[in-house]
Write a structure and sequence with these properties.
The protein has about 500 residues and is of the alpha+beta class. Helices cover about 30% and strands about 25% of the residues. The protein has 14 helices and 23 strands. The strands form 7 sheets. The protein has a 6-stranded mixed β-sheet with strand order 16-21-17-20-18-19, with helices on both faces. Strand 7 and strand 8 form a beta hairpin. Helix 4 packs antiparallel against helix 5 and helix 5 packs across helix 6. The chain is globular and about 80 Å long. The mean pLDDT is about 90.
Length: about 500
């Protein structure tokens, strides 16, 4: 095929955008996606149809949407062409073709050769009740999106069994006052598109977090971040924070790089497809930590399932039907009513997070008396009154509650300045306590004080459940209600 590499790259763009399922689209959309004329779109589609990559059924009439189906995986389409080149001895052309889309031709050649003798891939899929939001570490607020980001991107640190351990950083230390921190990062980490990860990438991302209106409250004590070398980072604080390494394990502190089409991480899985119907993660062979056994993880979206879906119940499957087991988590989500106890509230609307469980709690406990104004999950920037919301412990209860108290707009409740100043001062005191157990005790006292003052009312605590195939081993439910995908094993039947 003439210009086979270029056509593969265009097909991969198509596949990533629309996924392996019938979709509706217009020629103008494809012209914009491919940056070609509408006339040339038809030429490309005809070529792709002839070799079995796509099915295309046009519709007559202006602005009519045609039917498009991507019939083959891009890498499988590449391998099929490579088999023909190998048979004819055109090895140089084969190597060039394997480098389509910026791939490392040497690594892809090994995969191609092993693929010819492979009996089957190790894959799991996740049935889900809604379409996922784009996985930008600093923009997503919902629990499942934040979990998936931890599988795609890395942070300087991470939390395992309540302990801070290294992720990108392998060593860190502070000065005697806890106001200057130094992190040493690994020098063998590469983003999924092959670029080396350096300290300046972390500086860029963390600086962006500090400037982000959603997260600034939890990071406003950071004064300056710089990279004195390619593998070291220095962070200066306005006042002590002995738990800064724990804060930097939060999802929004993930390190990423922008490619021409999407954000790129360096985690255990790379994002290969993000379409209307499905998201696919693929094993990243150069991951700097425990390399996954799974080859692929696919999340399939089933909107009709939302009516029966319980927020705290998720699934990871090998197939359906199959024997499954249900695992429970030590972590949970807590639903709260945050309010101004001195204000006349009965006639005022109440802000309610747009999750099924928050809606259900509003209807059960409050609905007859108050009007609900629904807000995006986790976004407290627009509230101007009492709020029904939730705190998810993620992988660290301490950091999750600190983040909530630091970012929730208590001043928007109309609380007096003495109360809001007290909350801010207590959060600073917690950061200044260098013994974690003591800091946790101070945090618990702040939480109890808010409850005693009637500012917070805890409505419900909900543990997470994860239903998985009984052939999946090495699964522990984490604080997101999911499990670490790179630790899963598939047992023989």
């Amino acid at each position: 095929m003439k210009n086979a590499k270029r056509k593969l790259e265009l097909y991969e763009q198509l596949f990533r955008t629309f996924g392996p399922k019938e979709s509706r689209c217009q020629v103008s959309q494809l012209a914009s996606l491919w940056c070609v004329s509408e006339r040339y779109v038809f030429t490309l589609l005809k070529t792709m149809e002839d070799i079995g990559w796509v099915q295309w059924q046009g519709q007559s009439g202006r602005n009519k949407k045609a039917r498009l189906t991507c019939c083959v995986e891009p890498i499988d389409a590449c391998y099929a062409l490579c088999h023909n080149l190998a048979e004819s001895g055109q090895v140089d052309e084969l190597i060039k073709l394997l480098a389509f889309g910026g791939r490392d031709a040497g690594q892809e050649l090994q995969s191609f050769l092993s693929d010819t003798n492979r009996s089957g891939k190790r894959e799991v899929y996740i049935p889900f009740h809604r379409e996922l939001e784009p996985l930008h570490p600093q923009r997503v607020l919902r629990r499942t999106e934040r979990f998936l980001i931890t599988q795609i991107y890395q942070r300087l640190t991470k939390i395992i069994n309540n302990e801070v351990v290294g992720d990108l950083a392998y060593h860190w230390q502070s000065n005697n006052s806890g106001t200057e921190w130094y992190f040493q990062i690994r020098n063998d980490v590469y983003f999924h598109h092959g670029h080396k990860l350096v300290a300046q990438d972390a500086v860029r991302c963390l600086t962006s977090v500090i400037q982000n209106a959603r997260w600034a409250g939890g990071y406003r004590h950071i004064k300056n971040i710089n990279a004195p070398s390619e593998d070291s980072i220095e962070i200066s604080l306005h006042h002590a924070d002995w738990h800064l390494p724990r804060l930097l394990a939060n999802v929004e502190s993930s390190i990423f790089k922008s490619s021409s089409t999407q954000l790129v991480g360096s985690g255990a899985f790379s994002l290969d497809v993000f379409s209307t119907h499905m998201m696919r993660l693929s094993r990243y062979a150069r991951y700097s930590d425990q390399n996954p056994i799974l080859d692929k993880v696919e999340v399939w979206f089933y909107p009709d399932w939302a009516s029966s879906k319980v927020c705290a119940h998720n699934q990871v499957r090998l197939q359906m039907p199959e024997n499954t087991k249900t695992l429970h988590s030590d972590h949970h989500s807590t639903f709260l009513l945050v309010q101004n106890p001195t204000a006349e509230s009965q006639t005022r609307p109440i802000y309610v997070e747009d999750t099924s469980e928050s809606r259900r709690l509003f209807e059960q406990l409050i609905g007859d008396d108050r009007q609900a104004l629904y807000l995006e999950y986790g976004n407290y920037s627009m509230i101007h009154g009492d709020t029904l919301c939730s705190v998810i412990e993620e992988n660290d209860s301490f950091s999750s509650w600190m983040s909530f108290f630091s970012t929730f707009s208590f001043e928007q409740l109309g609380l007096n300045e003495e109360v809001t100043s007290y909350i801010t001062a207590e959060l600073n005191n917690i950061r200044k306590e260098n013994v974690l157990a003591n800091a946790q005790s101070l945090l618990s006292q702040l939480r109890s004080w808010l409850i005693e003052k009637g500012i917070i009312k805890e409505l419900k605590t909900e543990p997470f459940q994860l239903e998985i195939s009984d052939r999946l081993k090495g699964c522990t439910v984490n604080g997101f209600g999911w499990c670490e995908l790179n630790s899963l094993l598939i047992a023989d039947r």
